[in-house]
Design brief:
The complex is a heterodimer of chains A (495) and B (119). With 495 residues, chain A is of the alpha/beta class. Chain A folds into 2 domains: 78 residues, no CATH class; 318 residues, Aldolase class I (TIM Barrel). Chain A is 42% helix and 14% strand. A 9-stranded mixed sheet of chain A has the order 12-10-9-8-7-6-14-15-16. In chain A, strands 2-3-4 form a 3-stranded antiparallel sheet. In chain A, helix 13 runs parallel beside helix 19. Chain B is an alpha+beta fold. Chain B has a single domain, classed as Alpha-Beta Plaits (2-Layer Sandwich). Chain B is built from 3 helices and 3 strands; from the N terminus they run H-E-H-E-E-H. In chain B, a hairpin with a 5-residue loop joins strand 2 and strand 3. Classes of the chains: A alpha/beta (495), B alpha+beta (119). At the A-B interface, strand 1, strand 2, helix 3, helix 5 and helix 19 of A face helix 2 and helix 3 of B.
Chain lengths: 495, 119
């Protein structure tokens, strides 16, 4: 009769079986990865398509490729855990990698959540870096009308996305506030039956904020996004208006909006001009003083007046990076002293570095976020796949126009051959240079930027400021994460 | 990044330039590896690539403005040769993992409207 012990023994393999397996696994298989020489050249950044990464010395890298790593050494286990190699103890690696890549692309299922309505091109400011080529206030031919807005709204609700965000832009959108009211009310009516998660944002310089507007924003839970470039001298130099009081008006209005709508309903963006470069700490201090807990350090974009006034030529991406680095160092220092404050671009990049989850940031997606994440209805009814492509229109370049709400169907717009070709060429998995770039998992594609700067949707990466910025920032963040535990803890706390 | 960063404004303003020609043996590196490496150096003074008549070597011309010091120039050339080695290794990784990469992507995008069944 079989004893319990002998019965169990039949269900367990003897040690020799496992030892044989250990010997067999010396023949590990490589999983796909890219690498780039890093820092001083002593280390290599090794990354896979899912964004897992590690730093290796050249000798370790060559051993990995040649199949010479010692089984179960520390580096072997690390590389196996991060899916750079697999053996017969880790044969789920392929499925896991596929799952992570699928997760990264999850937003593709519910495309187009952000719908931008350019309700007017009129503006009271005369910023030399204006990327949308504003018009003077009295030219009402640059206003969107109700008919155009209604047709655009019908297209908005054709989107399959359960989340719909309608953002009002300009010019200064509050100069056409009656139309904003019309769109919000009409969208809410449609949403009675659609039942989407519907949100509204007004991107405004706050010059024309009033009690009536605040009442309406409060009633409809509308978020306000404004511009704050830094301390008084810098802000008023960057963003001139007739009475030279843009800073004073903006700061007062930020407090007013926050008091009425609450702290979560007001945000600010800054634009970096050449004058900003010497003031990273003062700019961060200004945001703290204005009651914000984060800042988005944005370089100038090569569109509109920024090109005509040659503002965009006044610094290159390397100089911007030095500015960014100094500001980030200061922000980390603030955090080390107990002041919670984030840099938003850093937060986006960190999320890409340490998790397989996607970000909603349109500029760092592949395929590009054009029409997939955002669609723009211009004041005249023309439809564009990115905010930047409507900026090109005011420079006489209509390359990206997908149709007009008065004459085009949803299918005409979203199956437009220009859009489809643009999206196909924006896949970094197959783009020249990108497909073998170690920074590719953290990057994306910006066809509008490369069209504007190189007249090519893909662009030559050696000359791309977009590429330079992503590489420099990503490399810097990895260095910071590796440098010391306190800094890493702060940075990872932002994700 | 490992290579020295020379502000673009300095390069653009420099009027006097000098050529430096590097010869790379085509038995050591494939033309594909050399081309890809040159592509990366397009913004860093790479100027011209040609194969010698006997097809034994590739001749790579760099054009340095006078604002680039001899030490910086040598640093860029050293970096270029290091990148040739790296690119060769990259090609090897790609060759070894191409099939599995396609399999991973096929799995990642399976059962989506992006993939059409053969029928």
């Amino acid at each position: 009769m079989m004893t319990e012990a002998s019965f169990l023994a039949k269900r367990f393999q003897p040690l020799s079986v496992y030892q044989a397996r250990l010997e067999h696994t010396h023949q590990y298989q490589l999983l796909p990865f890219n690498f780039a020489r890093f820092s001083t050249g002593a280390k290599y950044l090794v990354s896979n398509d899912a964004g897992d990464y590690c730093l290796l010395g050249r000798e370790e890298l060559v051993k990995l490729v040649d199949g010479d790593l010692v089984f179960d050494s520390d580096i072997y286990r690390t590389l196996r855990a991060k899916h750079f190699l697999y053996d017969d103890t880790s044969d789920v690696a392929i499925d896991l990698l596929a799952l992570k890549i699928r997760t990264k692309h999850a937003p593709l299922r519910n495309f187009t959540s952000l719908h931008i309505f350019v309700v007017t091109l009129r503006c009271d400011y005369s910023c030399p870096y204006c990327q949308v080529s504003r018009q003077t206030e009295d030219k009402s031919q640059y206003d969107m009308n109700e008919e155009t807005a209604s047709r655009a709204l019908a297209l908005v609700f054709r989107s399959p996305s359960p989340q719909i965000k309608i953002e009002f832009q300009g010019g200064e959108p509050l100069l056409n506030f009656d139309l904003i009211k019309f769109i919000v009310q009409r969208a809410n009516e449609i949403n009675q039956s659609e039942k989407r998660d519907l949100q509204f944002v007004i991107a405004t310089n706050l010059s024309f904020i009033s009690e009536e507007i605040l009442d309406f924003c409060e009633a409809h839970r509308i978020c306000i996004s404004t511009s704050l470039d830094g301390p008084i001298d810098l802000h008023n130099k960057n963003r001139p208006r007739p009475n030279k009081d843009g800073y004073q008006r903006t700061r007062a209005a930020i407090d007013r909006v926050r008091q009425r709508l609450g702290p979560d309903y007001i945000a600010a963006l800054m634009t970096t001009t050449e004058s900003s470069l010497a003031n990273p700490q003062q700019i961060v201090d200004e945001y703290l003083d204005a009651g914000f807990n984060s800042i988005f350090l944005r370089p100038l974009s090569p569109y509109g007046f920024a090109v005509r006034t040659r503002q965009v030529e006044k610094y290159d991406m390397e100089r911007f990076f030095d500015f960014y680095k100094e500001a980030l160092a200061y922000i980390i220092e603030l955090n080390l002293h107990g002041v919670p404050f984030r840099e938003e671009y850093t937060t986006l990049m960190l999320r890409k570095l340490v998790s397989p989850y996607p970000t909603s940031y349109v500029d760092l997606q592949t395929p590009a976020g054009a029409a997939i994440s955002v669609i723009v209805f211009n004041y005249d009814g023309n439809v564009y796949p990115t905010d930047e492509s409507r900026m090109l229109v005011e420079m006489g370049d209509t390359t990206f126009c997908l149709g007009n709400v008065k004459t085009s169907t949803y299918e005409d717009i979203f199956l437009n051959p220009t859009l489809l070709q643009c999206l196909e060429e924006s896949l970094t998995y197959s783009a020249p240079e990108c497909y073998e770039c170690a920074f590719q998992p953290y990057c994306g594609s910006d066809p509008t930027y490369h069209h504007a700067t190189q007249r090519d949707w893909v662009g030559h990466k050696a000359f791309s400021g977009f590429c330079t910025r992503t590489k420099l920032v990503t490399a810097h963040l990895i260095e910071l994460l590796e440098a010391d535990d306190d800094t890493a803890t702060i940075l990872l706390g932002w994700v | 990044m490992s290579e020295s960063r020379i502000p673009l404004s300095r390069v653009a303003n420099a009027k006097v330039t000098r050529d430096r020609i590097e010869s790379v043996c085509l038995r050591t590196y494939s033309l594909e590896v050399i081309k890809k490496t040159c592509y990366r150096y397009a913004s860093r003074h790479f100027s011209k690539l040609r194969v010698t008549e006997d097809k034994a070597a590739a001749s790579i011309t760099f054009n340095f403005p006078s604002t680039v010091s001899p030490a910086q120039e040598q640093q860029i050339i050293d970096s270029f040769h290091q990148d040739l080695l790296d690119q060769e290794l990259r090609e090897l990784v790609f060759k070894k993992t191409e099939v599995i990469r396609n399999l991973i992507f096929a799995n990642a995008f399976a059962n989506t409207a992006l993939v059409k069944d053969d029928d």
